[in-house]
Amino acid sequence: MLPHDAQLSPIIHAAARDLFAHYVGRMINITDIDNIQTPAATALLSQPGRTGVIGLTGAALRGTLVLFVSDRLLNATWPAGGAPPADWISELANQALGSIKRLLLNHGIDFDLGLPSATSGTNCRIFIRAQSPIYGLHTPKGDAALCFQYTSQGPLPLLNIANPDDDIPSEDESVILF
Amino acid sequence: MKQKILIIDDSESVRQQLYEALSVAGFDILQAPNGSAGLALVQAHSDIALAFCDIHMPVMNGLSFLESVSKLHRPNLSILMLTAERAPDMITQARKLGAKGWLKKPFDIDMIVATAHKLCTLRAA
């Protein structure tokens, strides 16, 4: 794994766990798939499902988050039950990137989120340019895959902030009334 | 008479979730897919008590919506930002533009309903 991906792996793992913990509980196993051509990646992405894509841009990094969620897991995340609206996957991608942003803000890295898009179908193939791993996300209610590819001027300048900005809402702060 | 709530989000999924929960909770719901459509509804309905508004939307984003509403002099309208965003400067900007609060996504729908009741009760008092 490239050095800069080693920096981000814990952050992406945490963001993925936070997202699916909210919707299906905390029993999530994450596998790091170094190559999208592997049988593991192919098997994961060949399931019927939907893919959300969202871009990001900032001074330190620019890139794209791709989130594939199997139909089985997607239905499990939809609060009303049954099949969710077509754009639910793009909203999940948006929330995943928002969580990554919050975690990176704690390390002094900021970026802007783009508008998410969505695709649907089987045999999803994810083509990326950066040497970023695919993260397989496995829950008792189905599987997903997340890829966070980005470009930066060398390793990310992650600051070890002992006391993150108190103004950054923590994951537990769901409501802030002014 | 039912209190009126406006939901502004480009995500159909989010609008549907909020519409279903808040309708069951007894509110009258209006929806808009972006800030511009939301602004038109605010201008057309002087009795909207509360608006939940996303940040990143096409046509007009949430902060631009806040700025536009601030010029309408609607002291009885509370606007809560509902977003995956966490940036402190964005929260500060929303507060300066008149937002009454910030709710994160993914959200707890019970929290959303409770917050709606709280703010609408305060308004009615």
Brief descriptors of the model:
heterodimer; A: 178 residues; alpha+beta; seven-stranded antiparallel sheet; 4 helices; 8 strands; B: 125 residues; alpha/beta; five-stranded parallel sheet; 5 helices; 5 strands; globular
Total DSSP E strands of chain A: 8
How much β-strand is present in the residues of chain A? 25-35%
The overall pLDDT average of chain A reads 83
User: Beta-sheet strand percentage of chain B?
Assistant: 15-25%
| Terminus-to-terminus distance of chain A | 43 Å
Strand numbers in spatial order across the main sheet of chain B: 2-1-3-4-5
**Which oligomerization state do the chains in this entry correspond to?**
heterodimer
Percent range of helical residues of chain A: 25-40%
SSE order of chain A: HEHEEHHEEEEE
Low-pLDDT stretches of chain A: none
Structural class of chain A: alpha+beta
Radius of gyration of chain B: 13 Å
Helix and strand succession of chain B?
EHEHEHEHEH
Residue runs with pLDDT of under 50 for 5 or more positions of chain B: none
- Main sheet: strands, sense, barrel of chain B: 5 strands, parallel
Structure description:
The complex is a heterodimer of chains A (178) and B (125). Chain A has 178 residues and is of the alpha+beta class. Helices cover 30% and strands 28% of the residues of chain A. Chain A is built from 4 helices and 8 strands. In chain A, strands 1, 2, 3, 4, 5, 6 and 7 form a 7-stranded antiparallel β-sheet that branches. Chain A starts with a helix and ends with a strand. The mean pLDDT of chain A is 83. Chain B is α/β, with parallel strands linked by helices. Chain B is 46% helix and 21% strand. Chain B has a 5-stranded parallel β-sheet, sandwiched between helices. In chain B, helix 1 (12-24) packs across helix 5 (109-124). Chain B starts with a strand and ends with a helix. The model of chain B has no long low-confidence stretch (mean pLDDT 93). Classes of the chains: A alpha+beta (178), B alpha/beta (125).
